[in-house]
Amino acid sequence: MKILCVGYREWALEIYDELAKKSDNVFLILRSKSQFSEGILNDFKPDLVLFYGWSWIIPAQILENYKCLMLHPSPLPKYRGGSPIQNQIIAGEKKSMVSIFVMTNELDAGDILVQKEISFEGKLSDIFRSIVETGISSTLEILENDIRAIKQDDSQATYCKRRKPEDSEITIDEIKSASAEYLYNKIRMLADPYPNAYIRTADGKKLFLKESEISED
């Protein structure tokens, strides 16, 4: 089988590199948006295209002519849309899912092939490691088995918006009214490579907060 892997996020590229090592299939890995084009698709003629962690709309003709899979780190149909990790953490979710589904023209709404639970506890780097490890095992399961896709229940769907850099500010109102757990979650969910959490100081500067911990004292 010929598999085209399209990505730009570090965790997605880690999955692709490990798949190429562990599977006997033929892989072509594209590591940025600029490397991807319909011309490459037509030349390579893949049997399967992986768009793990992709952030842009895929033209309808590609989805119609190629089987395309997406990895979305949420318990679909919950948390469809942008910034799913951050939106789940700030909502207080302790666990999530790695969902791999068949892409359609509707946002994160395609039939699900595999869903596996992961923890949302700990540092953001721990969460990424879980996504990578689960993404590898789940994709290998798809490649090695005839898995029946399961239709999503659209009536249970929820949606989240992609976060903007200005959403990383911890405001005075949040400091006065939010719980320690909320602020801890906001800081850890915005560790690198995301726009870090910050507070504005009296002299108009931004003080970035990259790590935090909660004391019971």
Automatic annotation (TrEMBL):
<dbReference type="InterPro" id="IPR011034">
    <property type="entry name" value="Formyl_transferase-like_C_sf"/>
</dbReference>
<protein>
    <submittedName>
        <fullName>Methionyl-tRNA formyltransferase</fullName>
    </submittedName>
</protein>
<dbReference type="InterPro" id="IPR036477">
    <property type="entry name" value="Formyl_transf_N_sf"/>
</dbReference>
<dbReference type="Pfam" id="PF00551">
    <property type="entry name" value="Formyl_trans_N"/>
</dbReference>
<feature type="domain" description="Formyl transferase N-terminal">
    <location>
        <begin position="40"/>
        <end position="119"/>
    </location>
</feature>
<dbReference type="InterPro" id="IPR002376">
    <property type="entry name" value="Formyl_transf_N"/>
</dbReference>
